[in-house]
Design a protein that fits this description.
The chain has 2 domains: 26-170, no CATH class; 196-398, Leucine Aminopeptidase, subunit E, domain 1 (3-Layer(aba) Sandwich). By secondary structure, it is α/β, with parallel strands linked by helices. It contains 14 helices and 9 strands. Strands 1, 2, 5, 6, 7, 8 and 9 form a 7-stranded mixed beta sheet that branches. Helix content is 40%, strand content 11%.
Length: 401
């Protein structure tokens, strides 16, 4: 690589530090991980992967007096845990029962850990074929099938997780200062007033989104990295991910459909480990929700992660842009289906961990949907919330502002 890397960085960046040595590319990290797969962690000192070493310095896994290879290994462990969404053990030690980690978390993270001998006691120096066999077992496939298929995705996602850790460390401190009172949506400025027939096409559901039936398109609220909530989270994203997953007869998830298709989209658009523009909408299939008459899930990127990783920020204008993008995509896809797509359902975008006050989110959502209906009145629109006060506010969408 051409950029100059300082010999080490302090574990904690000071406010005066430039947050911004240029990060290595995802492709470079992925290439180094492919080279590391066969020799495993024992090959770190011989291969001396520059991009991984740079990220280890940036994230503080390698600092003054820290062995570089050990720092890269710690970085990869953190990246694998991030993929698996399993908390690190106290003090960073590996629990005695390493197999416990193999029963929890996202398959990508578990397979990545096996591929490189991470997190599991006694597996660090295992031969490459043995590590591949263990990773293939996560997906219930043969080693050869795993090599030709899932292994490429696992390594690409681990590279993305490494890059995400670097990005979180180098992000400048948040300087977004919310005004004392967020703005209300503007008065209607575009299009004619909604006719009564169109207003009657707006339905409000006092329910959980995953319990709805026979609505063509359900909209999910995502962050700008298109990383869905974990299935145990009480969020729209988590609920839809959980409900859409394909399961075996014992209830175990065999295909995390929505997360997998989002990862595929990010990879095909060369955005793995990078954010999309706020307001972007990405479509996926409905997975198991097809059994409830759902035909598409639209993922709206409305939540911008805070620089410290502790939360999210949603601008009301982003919510409106996402609604417009949902209608634009729905109009584009409409006639690809038989019968054509005809109905959309919006939750309160940005009102959960996004930090937008629910009443404010409801007003902006109502306004944005009415703006779009004034131009596209043939869509049936549904709102869904579990808050009776907000359901009443959204019901006001049945009368023109």
């Amino acid at each position: 690589m051409s950029q100059q890397i300082p010999p080490s960085l302090p574990e904690q960046r000071s406010a005066a530090d430039p947050a911004e040595a240029e990060l290595p590319s995802h492709a470079c990290l992925e290439e180094e991980l492919h080279a590391l797969r066969r020799p495993g962690l024992a090959g770190l000192r011989r291969l001396r992967p520059e991009a991984l070493a740079q990220v280890a310095r940036i994230t503080g896994h390698t600092s003054d007096g820290t062995d570089e290879a050990a720092g890269i290994e710690a970085l990869l462990e953190a990246a694998a845990r991030r993929l698996a969404a399993t908390p690190g053990p106290p003090g960073g030690s590996v629990p005695p029962d390493g197999a416990a980690d193999d029963r929890r978390g996202d398959p990508l993270g578990r397979a990545a850990a096996h591929t490189f001998g991470l997190l599991f006691p006694g597996r660090r120096g295992a031969p490459a074929p043995e590590r591949r066999k263990a990773a293939a077992a996560v997906y219930g496939v043969t080693s050869e099938r795993f090599r030709r298929g899932q292994e490429q995705e696992v390594i690409a996602e681990l590279a993305g997780s490494v890059l995400a850790l670097a990005r979180a460390t180098t992000a400048a401190p948040a300087r977004i200062e919310a005004p004392d009172e967020l703005p209300d949506p503007p008065s209607r400025a575009a299009g004619p007033a909604l006719p009564p027939a169109t207003l009657r096409r707006i339905t409000v559901h006092f329910s959980s989104v995953e319990l709805l039936r026979d609505i063509d398109i359900l909209v999910s609220s995502e962050n700008t990295h298109m990383e869905m909530s974990k299935t145990f989270r009480p969020t729209v994203s988590g609920a839809l991910r959980r409900a859409a997953a394909i399961r075996d007869t014992g209830g175990g998830i065999t295909d995390d459909v929505l997360a997998r298709e989002l990862a595929d989209w990010m990879r095909s658009h060369r955005r793995t480990g990078l954010p999309v523009r706020p307001g972007t909408v990405v479509p996926t299939s409905p997975g198991a929700l097809a059994g409830r008459g759902v035909r598409r899930i639209y993922h709206a990127a409305v939540a911008l992660p805070d620089a410290d990783g502790g939360g999210y920020h949603v601008a009301p204008q982003t919510l409106a842009e996402a609604v417009a993008a949902v209608f634009a995509l729905a109009n584009e896809e409409r006639d690809r289906y038989d019968p054509p797509l005809a109905s959309l359902c919006f939750p309160l975008l940005g009102s959960g961990r996004g930090g937008l006050p629910p009443v404010k989110a409801a007003r902006w959502l109502r306004w944005a949907v009415q703006e779009e209906l004034s131009r596209h009145p043939d869509w049936a629109v549904h709102f869904v919330t579990r808050d009776p006060e907000l359901a009443e506010l959204l019901t006001d969408a049945s009368s023109a502002p």
